[in-house]
Structure formats: structure tokens, C-alpha cells
Amino acid sequence: METQRKTAIVLGATGLTGGILLRLLLQDDRYEKIKLFSRSSTGLVDKKIEEHLGNLMQLEQFEADFTGDEVFCCIGTTKSKTPQKEMYRKIDYGIPVAAAKLCAQNGISGFLVISSMGANAKSRVFYNRLKGEMEEAVLREDLKNTYIFRPSLIGGKREEKRLGEWVFKQLMKGVNLVLAGPLEKYRSIDPETIAKAMVIVANRGYSRSIIESDKIHQIASGDRD
């Protein structure tokens, strides 16, 4: 009996990790349709792709089209791109939480979202606190298959230039060599690794909802617990 092919929703497909995730889904025969919700087009043309363009901070406008089997949320900004905390919150908190609410409303049981190492709703650090608050709000929607990925510093080449981040990434390449055991989760991580792990977890599940950076590495490499 042929397995029914799935529809995936991707938020953030124009970003670094989201773009890689999209390409993996396009190559995956388990998916027959990939709905992209974004402010601008990816520019990719494929029979699987269905693009919906608009303001993601008003995600409810897409309610009728926000249907599928799984949602991959790769939304995220940076302090340099979004210096105003209010706008930062609308993006990194508002969009994922609105997406989770639409999942609950439209009967989508699979929700996979990228958070960050150190996420903690009680943290004094704005970024960590915001991510922690986002996680808590998403989990409150009580979706059957919710998975929160907490990567450490994400490597890879970005279109915009960030000198300070580039220097830090070069240093981390050396530091990664000595981070072992309990410290493995502090190693920098490639966006390809995150994207691959998200697809694997979406199709095979995982033993916990929150997945730390070292576990993301293990999942992507085929070493699961």
C-alpha cells in the first residue's frame, strides 16, 4: 500500500537554514507539496512549491491556506538587523507563536521550530528570555508533535556581512576541537545539520520535545537515543 505523501509548511525559507531545509524537502519523496509563507519570494520554481507572500507578523491573514501535515518554523532575526526590541519580539516571538496557534486551529499536529541554546523565560538576557518565552507559548498550544531545536552558534555563509560574527566563527572552529563530553552542545553547528535533523525528526519523531545542540548533531549523523 502506497504511503500518502505529505504537505509541509515552511516559515523562513528565504533564510540560511530555512533555504537549506527547503531544498531537502524538495528532494524528499515523502512530500508532495511545500507551502512557503514569507515576505518575499525564494525565486525557486518547482511543481512542489506553493508560495504565499505577505506580512508574517499578520500570519492570521493566511488562515485559509495554512493547512498541511507539518510546519517547519525557521524564523529569526539578529540585533544588527533588528535593533528595536519591540520589533525583535514581533519576529522571534510573535511569528512562531502565531504559527503554533494556527496549527492548533487548523488541526496540524507537527510543529518544528528553531529556538536557541540558552533559551530561558527567566533569563535576564533579552535574547535568551525571548526565546524561552516563545518556547513556553508554543508548548502551551499542546500540539501532538512539537519539537524545539536549540542550536548553538550557527555556522555557514550569510548574504549579509557580519565581521564580528565571522571572527567569532573562525575562533569556534578551533574551540570545537576541545569541546567534548558534556561540553559538546557548545560546539558551533552548521545549518545543514539543523535542517537535516528537522526533517528526520518530523518523520521519525524523537524522545523529547526540546532538542539541544549536541542532540541535533547526533540525530543528523544517525546516532539517535
Automatic annotation (TrEMBL):
Pfam families recorded for this chain?
NAD_binding_10
Superkingdom per UniProt: Bacteria
Gene3D superfamilies, sorted? NAD(P)-binding Rossmann-like Domain (3.40.50.720)
Check the record and name the InterPro entries matching this protein: NAD(P)-bd_dom, NAD(P)-bd_dom_sf
Alphabetically sorted, this entry's keywords are: Membrane, Transmembrane, Transmembrane helix
> Is Oxidoreductase among this UniProt entry's keywords?
no
Give TM segment ranges. Answer: 6-26
Stored SUPFAM superfamilies? NAD(P)-binding Rossmann-fold domains (SSF51735)
Q: Residues in domain NAD(P)-binding?
A: 12-141
The protein in question is named NAD(P)H-binding
